[in-house]
Amino acid sequence: xxxxxxxxxxxxxxxxxxxxxxxxxxxxxxxxxxxxQDRRQQHVGFPVDWSSxxxxxxxxxxxxxxxxxxxxxxxxINWAQxxxxxxxxxxxxxxxxxxxxxxxxxxxxxxxxxxSGGMPIAESPAKYSFSANGTYSCANDFVVYTIGATPGASxxxxxxxxxxxxxxASSSCPFGPQTPPTTDFTQPSFMWSYRAGSAASYLSPxxxxxxxxxxxxxxSTSAKFDVLTWVAGQGTDATHPAVPGTGGxxxxxxxxxxxxxxxxxxxxxxxxxxxxxxYGADVAYIGADNGMLYRITGVFAGTPAVQYCVTVKxxxxxxxxxxxxxxxxxxxxxxxxxxxxTPGASSFTAGGSIAVGGxxxxxxxxxxxxxxxxxxxxxxxxxxxxxxTNTIVSQINLALTAKVDAAIGPAFxxxxxxxxxxxxxxxxxxxxAGAGTLYACGAQVGASTxxxxxxLTFQSPSGLMNSTPAMSDNRxxxxxxxxxxxxxxxxxxxxxxxxxxxVGTGNFNNTSGANLVTEWxxxxxxxxxxxxxxxxxxxxxxxxxxxxxxxxxxxxxxASIYFGTLRPPAAGNSxxxxxxxxxxxxxxxxxLQ
Length: 593
Description:
By secondary structure, this protein is mostly beta strands.
């Protein structure tokens, strides 16, 4: 989930250029429409979060979809993520550095999230870029982390960093975390830090388009949907947080699973469902552990309130929903099946439903569907198939009436299976033979608790996924000791020259896993299961959360990935953010340094 801004029209020729010209027009339409809907939003920036990679708009697909896509801000965000002519230049205190020497240190920077909890497993930070004109800002670009810890006087549950583009003395953001700034160029600044509400936040945050508000979940026994209005400078760090409510900051909370709306429950937790925001309608879709899907209105521009709900499956732990504005459908899973619902004026209308995961394990599907609205497919990653024999990727049509399953190892008996990601060729040509690859983390053959890398391809002209992987069981995402563990959600990102895949592996229950982040060159598809990564970062204790990607930039410090470690370091080991702490980490895309 990334940001890329235009500075030149000289990139790949052919149909991609035509599509990008069209989408450039749609960007203007979308921005104008959004600003007209809410004049209080004086600025529209570039928010990227978990949802940015769960609704796909490719450069190849149905023309009617492309014409309608401009109504959804994620269409131009997705386009900007995947279009190679977008390049960041410094502004706002930044400066273009000289060529940087190769660093010795493995960590670009790492900041403490405190000793009580870190960025939750499989969840993603959210990144906000202030400018949409091809520049990055040291002061105004920031990344938000939620923290799985009960908030208190010495522990935040949500915070943000700015002055991100640091790591060396020649970095583009010459600020340190101190106030006033010193000559410490190697760390970002705590922008704000809050103990917001009374419960931990185990799910991903989502930003408003103007960046001034953050929606997130408080994971109590009766989960709350929170909207935080932040103020820069409030809170010192992860262990000295502020309480929102003074100086312009505010926290609005809705106990949405016990809202008093008829038929919408009397309270439930939320294990797996991050909020998905429909920016144009100012609406959030969110699930809960009572098996109900909720529609919340007035998210950023009004007062949040539950409008209506529907029972998907009683007492199921629902995944995050994904709203496809093109078809007006919400896609969600109960851990075993995928469902669709059409939101109306006063209720949801049930659509299709299809079985994907087997019942041999609890909730084989833990993350939300990925919806490729352009080509008409839904992708789901499951620890079992319906026969309980294999870990699978399932490609499903939008009507949820037909699917293709590709086995990616035996049924996973470890912790769980999470999302894969698509290479740049998929976004250029769509799911066609000889172009487009989906990478997924499955289970090793003969070792169903250990992770392995798979590559999936497609057929022409149907776009159907091949049921047999093109590359199977590459174990080099794991360490030489080959311990049990899980992957983070995979991230693929094209920087205009190189298409890269980032994979994290670890064991979040302890520190005995691989504790690695690897970077792979996928400009040409990986075809061999003995291929090795280009770069490896070690000692990411417990493994990594989901990644959020930064920019295409001439300064390596402004072209990075962000994530959190899932455990404090093992006894006797140090952590780059301090012994005993969970870390927020930034590594450069090109070197994992």
